[in-house]
Amino acid sequence: MDKKTILWPVVISVVIHMTVLGLAGMIDLRDHVNPIDVLSVNISSPEPEQEKEPAKENPEETKKEKTKPVSARQEKRTAGDDHGWREDTVDLGSLEVKYVNYLAKIKKRILRIWKYPQKAYDNLEEGNVVVKMSIDASGRLTDVTLVSSSGSPDLDHGALTVVQEAAPYEPLPAQYNLSRLHIIASFSYKITD
Predict the structure, then answer these.
(1) In this predicted structure, what is the pLDDT of residue 66?
(2) pTM reported for the whole predicted model
(3) HEC string of the chain?
(4) 98-102 contact pairs (CB < 8 A, 24+)
(5) What is the pLDDT of residues 166-178, one digit of tens each?
(6) Nearest to 147 by CA among 161, 159, 165, 135
(7) Which residues of the chain have pLDDT under 70?
(8) Which long-range contacts (CB under 8 A, 24 or more apart) does 54-63 make?
(9) Among residues of the chain, what percentage have pLDDT more than 90?
(10) pLDDT tens digits along 26-60
(11) Residue 171 Cα distances to 30, 90, 106, 190, angstroms
């Protein structure tokens, strides 16, 4: 058999394989993968409260009460306008390409110090805690709230505390163009033998 007969199919195969691998590296296949959530939580913004009609006992008090809600409405409207203030909410386990690297850093920082609360461990308490943490553009933790309780105050406190102790976080990447990022994090406490 001639060397060229064997060499050409090998060269063609290598070129085709390298081309396919190069193209596969450029295509993001993670768009169609849904993250596995221990618990899904849908958070919607609260509806604005409707103003109550003030009691008409004293005309001057009525005038003052009417003025106060008007200024409060104006403040809300100003804060709600899109003058560079942008927020987004994402799950800590999200595979969304835009956030995956930043969320991995947040998760790593939390996992480094996350421990099972000793009192809960001694009482064999297990459960899932879901918290919402808010990080501003500079990386400062601005808020952490309990979204879903495990039923154990010790586990709930442990999840809230670890998020607070891991702060401050890295600043939000400039390409996010966000003033604040809300992150939903699930903490699963399970005692294994």
Answers:
(1) 33
(2) 0.58
(3) CCHHHHHHHHHHHHHHHHHHHHHHHHCCHHHHCCCCCCCCCCCCCCCCCCCCCCCCCCHHHHHHHHHHHHHHHHHHHHHHCCCCCCEEEEECCCCCCCCHHHHHHHHHHHHHHCCCCHHHHHCCCCEEEEEEEEEECCCCEEEEEEEECCCCHHHHHHHHHHHHHCCCCCCCCHHHCCCEEEEEEEEEECCCC
(4) 98/176, 99/176, 100/30, 102/170, 102/172, 102/173, 102/176
(5) 999 999 999 999 9
(6) 159
(7) 1, 24-84, 193
(8) none
(9) 52
(10) 665 554 544 444 333 333 333 444 444 444 444 44
(11) 25, 16, 11, 32
Displacement of CA 37 from its chain's centroid (Å): 13
What's the CA gap between 162 and 24, in Å, rounded? 39
In sequence order, which residues have a C-beta less than 8 Å from that of residue 73 and are 6 or more positions away? none
